[in-house]
Amino acid sequence: MVTRLNPITEFREDHRKVRDALLALSQAALDRDIAQARDVLGLIDSMVGPHFRYEEETLYPAMKEFLGDYVDSLLAEHDTAIDTARTAARLLAQPSLSEEDGKAVASAARALLVHVSNCDGLNILAERFSPQKLDDLGERFARSRAEGVPLLRWANTIRKRAQAS
Ligand SMILES: [Fe+2]
Q: What is the CA(119)–ligand 1 centre distance, in A?
């Protein structure tokens, strides 16, 4: 069994790291430094995979306690964020980055940055979960991190199956 973590502080810590990485991605894309942009996108992919998975498998269902059906729109926001990440990955798979494509990657990074900012607001609600619920969330968050499936791989495999079932 994995050691459980504090789901509120770790959730925010993820957002801080992803925020900084997205700002770095945006800058690298505008500089048309494709090697740096690819490195940073890879880092984002590996950090965000377990985070999104935890949100969809555990946090969002728990959030129904406070948000009811609004949770469905959080899932729709994830669909958009995943598409945006796919677009950035596709553009960065090219041998080099045109000025136009650099701007497109920077704009994708900004769109994801808004998502990070919105997502962090869920913490103000998470503080109202019972201590038992928080323990459960902490254990599941730790498990998702331990499994460590990157975002696009998760979206193309595990998440797809979860949607189909
Ligand atoms: Fe989040």
A: 5
Distance, CA of 45 to CA of 22 (rounded, Å): 11
For ligand 1, the distance from its centroid to the CA atom of residue 102, given in whole angstroms, is 25
Domain ranges in the chain are 7-164
Query: Rounded to the nearest whole angstrom, what is the distance from the C-alpha of residue 131 to the centroid of ligand 1?
Result: 21
Distance 116 CA to ligand 1 centre (A): 6
User: What's the CATH number for 7-164?
Assistant: 1.20.120.520
Instruction: Convert the pLDDT of each residue in 6-64 to its tens digit.
Output: 999 999 999 999 999 999 999 999 999 999 999 999 999 999 999 999 999 999 999 99
Q: Cβ contacts of residue 75 below 8 Å, gap of 6+? A: 56, 60
pTM of the model: 0.94
